[in-house]
C-alpha cells in the first residue's frame, strides 16, 4: 500500500484591515478546497500577518519553518497558497523559493489560479506577470506611504506610534501627553536637568515610578535614548526611510529645546560604565562565539553564547546554558562541551593539524594563566589596602 501524499498551506495578510476583512478565513477555505481537489490532506498550516515585500522574504521565519518541516516530512508534496501575492510580493524571491521547494520535492500550488500550476511556458509567463504586478503594487504603496510620512513631518505631525509618555490624540498625527506616564517622565527629566539627580539615580527612580508599572524595567541605554530624544522638546524627526527634521512639531513638548540641549550635554559627559566584552572571553563559557548554529550559518549572529539561568523560584540555583543568538536554540553547558569534545575526538587530523591545534590551545591557556596571575596580584593588592585601612581605623 502506497503512503498518501501530504500538503502544507500558507495564508498571509500584511495589514490589520485585511485581518478585519476575514482575508485569512477566505484564504483558508480556498487552500482547503484545492487540497481536496488534489486528494491530499493538509497536515500543517501557517497563518498570520507577515511582510512579504522584496528583501524581506529571505529572512521570513514562516518560510524557514516550512522548508525545515518539508525536509523532515518527505511525504509532503505540496505547499498550497491562495495566490502569488499571498505567498510573497517579489519576482526574484517568488521564483527562487519555488525552486527551493522543488529541490526538496515540494510543489508550490496556487489555489485561486490553477492555470499557474502548469509547467508550460504560458503558465510560467503568467506566473511571472502575477509576481511582477504584486511587487509593483507593493512598491507603489510603499512610495505613497513614504510620501505621506514626509508630508506629515513637514506639517509638524507624527505619523507613527506615539512615543513613550504619549497617547494617540484627537487630532491625527498629534499625540497627547499621557496624564500618568508622561508626567512621570517629565518629572524624571527635570530632575536630571536641574541637577537634582544623576542619570543613574534618575533611572533608578524611573523604574520605581508609575511610568514602568506593568512593564519591563528600563536599562541605561534605552533610558539614554529617551532622555536625548528631541521629540520630547517638540521636534518631529525621522532618520530611516524618511529623513526629515521639523523643530515645530504640533504636539505639546515635555521640556524646552534649551533643556533638551542640556540633557544631551549631561549624557555626552556621562561615560558608559560597561567594560565591554572580556579580552580573553568568559572562562565559564569557553565556547562562546566560537561554535556556530547549523540553522543560522548564513546569519551574522548565528553563534552560541553562554548565559546563566535560573528557574525563577530558587535564585541561587544557576543553570549554565549556551544559546544561539540567531534562532534562540540552546544547549546546557555540559551538553555542548560534550558534543564538541566528541567531535574533536573523532576528527581525523594530520600531524600538522594536531600540532596547530596544540599550539592554539597552548596560546589560549598561556593567556588565561597570565590573566589569572594578574587577577591574583590585583586581589593581593586589594587585601593589603583593606588591611591598611582597617589598621588606621582601629
Notes on the protein architecture:
The protein has twelve helices and eleven strands. It has 394 residues and is an alpha/beta fold. It has four domains: 6-140, Rossmann fold (3-Layer(aba) Sandwich), CATH 3.40.50.1390; 156-269, Putative Large Serine Recombinase, Chain B, Domain 2 (Hect, E3 ligase catalytic domain fold, Alpha-Beta Complex); 280-347; 350-394. Helix 7 (181-193) packs antiparallel against helix 8 (199-206) and helix 7 crosses helix 10 (257-269). The longest helix is centred in the C-terminal third of the chain and has 42 residues, at 351-392.
Give the arrangement of secondary structure elements.
Elements (H helix, E strand, L loop, with lengths): L5 E8 L2 H5 L2 H16 L3 E8 L11 H12 L3 E6 L2 H4 L3 H13 L3 E4 L10 H34 L11 E2 L8 E2 L3 H13 L5 H8 L13 H8 L8 E4 L3 E4 L10 H13 L34 E6 L9 E6 L5 E3 H14 L4 H42 L2
Parallel strand pairs: 1-2, 1-3, 3-4
Antiparallel strand pairs: 5-6, 7-8, 9-10, 10-11
- Summarize the biggest pleated sheet: 4 strands, parallel
Give the end-to-end Cα distance, rounded to a whole number of Å: 92 Å
Rg over CA atoms, rounded to whole Å, is: 29 Å
The neighbouring-strand order within the major sheet is 2-1-3-4
Number of strands: 11
Tell me the series of helices and strands, N- to C-terminal: EHHEHEHHEHEEHHHEEHEEEHH
Mass-distribution shape: flat
**What name does the CATH topology of the largest domain carry?**
Rossmann fold
Mean pLDDT: 79
CATH superfamily of the largest domain: Resolvase, N-terminal catalytic domain
| Helix share bin | 40-55%
Number of individual domains: 4
In CATH, what is the class of the largest domain?
Answer: Alpha Beta
**SS strand fraction:** 5-15%
CATH-defined architecture of the largest domain? 3-Layer(aba) Sandwich
Amino acid at each position: 500500500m502506497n503512503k498518501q501524499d501530504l500538503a502544507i498551506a500558507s495564508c498571509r495578510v500584511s495589514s490589520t484591515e485585511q485581518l478585519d476583512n476575514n482575508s485569512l478565513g477566505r484564504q483558508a477555505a480556498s487552500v482547503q478546497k484545492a487540497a481536496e481537489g488534489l486528494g491530499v490532506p493538509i497536515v500543517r498550516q501557517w497563518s498570520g500577518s507577515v511582510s512579504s515585500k522584496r528583501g524581506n522574504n529571505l529572512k521570513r521565519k514562516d518560510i524557514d519553518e516550512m522548508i525545515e518541516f518539508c525536509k523532515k516530512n518527505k511525504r509532503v508534496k505540496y505547499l498550497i497558497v491562495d495566490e502569488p501575492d499571498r505567498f510573497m510580493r517579489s519576482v526574484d524571491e517568488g521564483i527562487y523559493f519555488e525552486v527551493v521547494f522543488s529541490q526538496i520535492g515540494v510543489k508550490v500550488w496556487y489555489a485561486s489560479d490553477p492555470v499557474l500550476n502548469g509547467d508550460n511556458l504560458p503558465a510560467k509567463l503568467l506566473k511571472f506577470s502575477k509576481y511582477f504586478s504584486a511587487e509593483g503594487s507593493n512598491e507603489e504603496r510603499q512610495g505613497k506611504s513614504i510620501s505621506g510620512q514626509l508630508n506629515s513631518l513637514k506639517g509638524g505631525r507624527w505619523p507613527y506610534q506615539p512615543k513613550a509618555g504619549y497617547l494617540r490624540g484627537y487630532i491625527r498625527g498629534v499625540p497627547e501627553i499621557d496624564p500618568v506616564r508622561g508626567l512621570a517622565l517629565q518629572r524624571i527629566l527635570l530632575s536630571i536637568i536641574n541637577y537634582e539627580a544623576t542619570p543613574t539615580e534618575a533611572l533608578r527612580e524611573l523604574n520605581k515610578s508609575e511610568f514602568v508599572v506593568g512593564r519591563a524595567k528600563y536599562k541605561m541605554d534605552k533610558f539614554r535614548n529617551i532622555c536625548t530624544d528631541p521629540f520630547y522638546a517638540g521636534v518631529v524627526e525621522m532618520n530611516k526611510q524618511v529623513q526629515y527634521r521639523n523643530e515645530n512639531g504640533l504636539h505639546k513638548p515635555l521640556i524646552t529645546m534649551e533643556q533638551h540641549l542640556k540633557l544631551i550635554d549631561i549624557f555626552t559627559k556621562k561615560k558608559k560604565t560597561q567594560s565591554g566584552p572580556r579580552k580573553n572571553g568568559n572562562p565559564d563559557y569557553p565556547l562562546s562565539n566560537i561554535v556556530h548554529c547549523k540553522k543560522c550559518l548564513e546569519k551574522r549572529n548565528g553563534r552560541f553564547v553562554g548565559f546563566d539561568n535560573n528557574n525563577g523560584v530558587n535564585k541561587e540555583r544557576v543553570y549554565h546554558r549556551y544559546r544561539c543568538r540567531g534562532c534562540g536554540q540552546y544547549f546546557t553547558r555540559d551538553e555542548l562541551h560534550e558534543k564538541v569534545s566528541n567531535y574533536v575526538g573523532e576528527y581525523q587530523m594530520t600531524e600538522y593539524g594536531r600540532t596547530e591545534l596544540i599550539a592554539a590551545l597552548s596560546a589560549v591557556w598561556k593567556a588565561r594563566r597570565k590573566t589569572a596571575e594578574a587577577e591574583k596580584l590585583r586581589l593581593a593588592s586589594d587585601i593589603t589596602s583593606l588591611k591598611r585601612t582597617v589598621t588606621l581605623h582601629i
